[in-house]
Write a structure and sequence with these properties.
Layout: E1 13-15, E2 23-25, H1 36-76, H2 79-82, H3 86-104, H4 116-134, H5 140-153, H6 165-172, H7 176-195
Antiparallel strand pairs: 1-2
Helix pairs in contact: 1-3, 4-6, 5-7
């Protein structure tokens, strides 16, 4: 929800456009029919929308950073670099490492409030995904097939394939934010399988 930055006195607030554009209470307003509680609650509603907007933007920044790191990792492992002469390969790798290190200086952290049961559910989900990742090198076909069953658990409409019920049960115990992150993580793994041209076992 976008906030209208235009000044307003009828609601009991004015916009401090010089700095952050956030609303403040106009305590000198004597014509507002609302009670002090109503005016404060209205202010809090507006500030809450700013907080949610901030969280969305931070989540997008976090995703952008992960995509950049993934792209840099792909460049570092491309066959084009392997085919370069030694001196050129060293120059390119050092350049890529420098960009990677620079990207890693950016930290975006969004805390999600969880109760004990949600913490345990997330731990179980992460454990299942980690065990999948551990099998990537030894059996990528089975790992991809299992990843698809996990991904099916994240969707309400499964067109084909089966759903891992154990994973689905754990996922349903997670917060909505965690469920979204898990789905993105699984999608990233599936994209990785596609780059490796891995065919899943039916």
């Amino acid at each position: 929800m976008d906030i209208d930055p235009s000044p307003s006195t009828s609601s009991g607030f004015f916009m401090d456009l010089t700095f952050s554009g956030l609303p403040k209470i106009d305590e000198n307003n004597t014509v507002d029919p609302k009670s002090p509680k109503e005016r404060v609650l209205e202010l809090l509603d507006i500030l809450e929308s700013h907080v949610e907007k901030l969280r969305r933007e931070a989540a997008q920044l976090e995703e952008d950073r992960d995509h950049l790191l993934s792209s840099l990792d792909s460049v570092r492992n491309t066959d084009l670099i392997v085919d370069l002469p030694d001196n050129d390969r060293d120059d390119v790798c050092q350049y890529a490492e420098r960009i990677m290190s620079r990207c890693l200086t950016v930290e975006v952290k969004i805390l999600t409030q969880r109760d004990k049961m949600q913490e345990e559910a997330l731990h179980q989900v992460n454990h299942l995904i980690d065990s999948l990742v551990m099998g990537l090198k030894s059996d990528p076909e089975s790992a991809k097939a299992r990843c698809i069953t996990f991904m099916n658990a994240c969707s309400s409409n499964v067109v084909h394939g089966i759903t891992d019920k154990k994973f689905e049960s754990a996922l349903l115990g997670c917060t909505v934010d965690d469920q979204k992150r898990v789905k993105k993580r699984l999608q990233g793994l599936l994209n990785y399988f596609d780059k490796l041209n891995v065919t899943s076992i039916p």
